[in-house]
Structures are given as structure tokens and as C-alpha cells.
């Protein structure tokens, strides 16, 4: 039997059958190789798409950050311009506060009349300069006097209930404190500062 098998393998028919079997395995391997290549190509394309998507997202984030930075810069520039305008207004207020009527008003006048006008303008400047400190001192003294008077009145008066006197004390003192705080704050807040020309 082995002889017959060897004769068959060595014959043309056996060679053809082994050739067909070999071609079949080769074709199967090529199909597998093409399938693997196709899977590999699809995987590479998938990775390429993911990479392009990530690149696109990074570009969007970069552009968004750039536009946000430009918007922030514009806001900062606007804030700086506003601060500069506020400072210029404050400088103008300081210049106006320091302006006097007597400066240069009488430079074109001569003689006795110029002296009288200059004296009157200096008096106006003096009154103008004393308004704030006089008002401030007056309100501080008034606040102290009312508080002292009401404190003494609470101890001496029995004709009104203590709750009415207490409410009256709180109302009057609150009003005077408000006026005093407003005047003092305005007085010291609008003084000439270190801003110069």
C-alpha cells in the first residue's frame, strides 16, 4: 500500500492534487493577509481620524483661548482708559478746588479800585476756604452737645417714658452722626492729594 501511495504522490495526478491543495492554502493565507491588511488600514484610518479630531479640538481651544485673551486685553485696556479718565476728572476737581477768585482777577486793574476789588476777592476766598472746616467742626460740636444733653435728660426727665426718650435719642443721634460722617468724609476725601500736574 505504501508503494501505491508513493507511486500516486510521485505521479502527475498526485502532483496536481498537492498543487491544488498548496494553491488552496496559499489563497487562504492571501485572503487572511488581505483581511489583516484591510483591518490594519482601517485601524490606521481610525487613528488618523482621532488624531485629526484631537488636532481640531486643540486648534479650537487654542483659538478660543486666543480670542478670550484678546477680549480680556480689550477689557483691561478699557479699564485702564476709564481709570485714566477718572484720574483726569479728579485732577480737574483738585484744580477747581484750589482755584481762587483773587488769583489774577485784578491784574488788569490799577489804583485804589484794584486794591478794594482784590481785598473783597481775598475775603471771598477766605470764606470759601472756611466753609468745609467750619461745617465739620460745627457738626462735631453739635453731635457732642446733643448726646450730652440727651444723656443728662434721660437721667432727669420722668414725664416721658424712657422708651420714647431712648427712641428720640437714637433718632437724633443717628441723624447727626450721618450728617457729621458725611461732612467729615467729604472734607477729608476731597482734600488735595498727591496727584499733581
Could you please describe the fold and organization of this structure?
The protein is an all-alpha fold and 197 residues long. It has two domains: 1-99; 103-197. The chain has four helices and no strands. α3 (111-156) packs antiparallel against α4. The longest helix has 87 residues, at 12-98. The termini are far apart.
Task: Please describe the structure with a list of short key phrases separated by commas or semicolons.
single chain, about 200 residues, mainly alpha, 2 domains, about 0% strand
Distance between the termini: 124 Å
Q: Please give the count of helices.
A: 4
Instruction: Count up the domains.
Output: 2
Radius of gyration: 50 Å
User: What profile does the largest beta sheet have?
Assistant: none
Number of strands: 0
Produce a short descriptive summary.
The protein has 197 residues and is mainly α. 86% of the residues lie in helices and 0% in strands.
Amino acid at each position: 500500500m505504501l508503494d501505491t501511495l508513493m507511486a500516486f504522490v510521485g505521479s502527475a495526478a498526485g502532483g496536481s492534487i498537492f498543487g491544488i491543495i498548496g494553491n488552496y492554502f496559499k489563497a487562504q493565507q492571501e485572503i487572511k493577509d488581505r483581511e489583516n491588511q484591510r483591518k490594519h488600514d482601517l485601524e490606521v484610518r481610525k487613528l488618523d481620524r482621532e488624531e485629526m479630531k484631537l488636532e481640531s479640538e486643540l486648534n479650537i481651544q487654542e483659538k478660543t483661548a486666543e480670542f478670550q485673551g484678546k477680549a480680556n486685553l480689550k477689557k483691561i485696556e478699557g479699564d485702564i482708559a476709564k481709570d485714566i479718565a477718572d484720574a483726569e476728572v479728579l485732577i480737574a476737581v483738585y484744580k477747581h478746588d484750589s482755584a481762587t477768585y483773587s488769583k489774577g482777577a485784578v491784574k488788569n486793574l490799577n489804583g485804589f479800585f484794584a486794591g478794594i476789588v482784590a481785598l473783597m476777592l481775598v475775603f471771598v476766598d477766605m470764606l470759601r476756604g472756611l466753609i468745609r472746616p467750619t461745617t465739620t467742626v460745627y457738626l462735631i460740636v453739635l453731635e457732642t452737645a446733643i448726646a450730652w444733653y440727651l444723656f443728662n435728660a434721660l437721667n432727669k426727665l420722668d414725664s416721658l417714658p424712657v422708651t420714647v426718650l431712648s427712641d428720640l435719642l437714637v433718632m437724633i443721634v443717628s441723624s447727626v452722626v450721618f450728617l457729621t460722617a458725611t461732612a467729615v468724609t467729604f472734607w477729608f476725601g476731597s482734600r488735595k492729594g498727591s496727584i499733581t500736574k
